[in-house]
Structure formats: C-alpha cells, structure tokens
Amino acid sequence: MDEILEILEKNARVPLEDIAKMTGRKIGAVKKAVAKYEKDGIIIGYKTVINKELVKDDNAAVRALIEVNIAPQKDVGFDKLSERIYSFPEVSSCYLVSGTFDLLLIVEGKDMHTAAKFVAEKLSPLEGVKGTVTHFLLRKYKENGVVLKYKEENKRIAISY
User: Fold this and answer.
1) What is the DSSP string of 47-115?
2) The domain containing residue 30 runs over which residues?
C-alpha cells in the first residue's frame, strides 16, 4: 500500500505538507495522489474515532455483533442477500467471513430491545437467512487501532481474608 494511504489510515488529520515531508514527495504530488484516491473510491471517507464511554449521552446506542448463516443464491452467491441485509438502517457494517457463519453484522439500536426486535422481525424472517447469533457489545477497549482510555475510578471494595 502507498505510504500516503498508510499515513492517512493511521491519522486522517495529518496535513498534506507533513505527508509530503514524511514521504519525500512534493506537496503537489501528494495533493494529486490524494485527489486521485478519492476520485477512484480508494479513499471513501474520513472518520473520527470517538470514545463514547466518555461522552455523556442519554441517547447512546447499543451495538451488537450478529453472526448470520445464509444460503447462497444461484448465480449471485451471497451478494444479493447481503445487499438486502446491509440496506437496513440498523446495520452499520456487514462482512462476509469464513468460519461457522457467513456474515458478521454490526447493528445499532437505541437499546437491547430494539436490536433484538431487528433480528426477530426484520433479519430472521428473510428468505435465505438460516440462523443468527447475537452478541451485545458491553465495552470497547480498542477500536480502529486506537486504545480507548477510561476515566473510571476503581470502585471495588477490597476484600481481605
């Protein structure tokens, strides 16, 4: 992978001038390369990693990982059903994976009930969905290569014998 992409993947806020210095390229060449990556769909967006545990939000979403077994369809394999599944607004990510299940979904809802309702009423009834397993995310320790720090005091009571 190009050095420019590696730098931006780690920190999208690095100024192009700094990228030019880091790679030994001229600023014009870096600007041109980034513009081409964006035009070609190689760079499809820039995202900030937010430690939501530290944000006081009464409307914080619940996230679930959902394993899905699906039946591949003739001539389209997993693609057609996967497209239908990832089109639901509750699905923030959808991956075709190897192993004991076919798809891994990241689903967001306002609470556990909403996520469970999505599985029961929208996902499971789809023709071609053979089964699901839902895992609710309780805490994130690391996301997108960034370790998330917590400002939490140890409130456990010391036990001595």
Assistant:
1) -----GGGS--TTPPEEEEEEEEEPPBTTTBTHHHHHHHHTSTTEEEEEE-SSS-SEEEEEEESSHHHH
2) 3-39
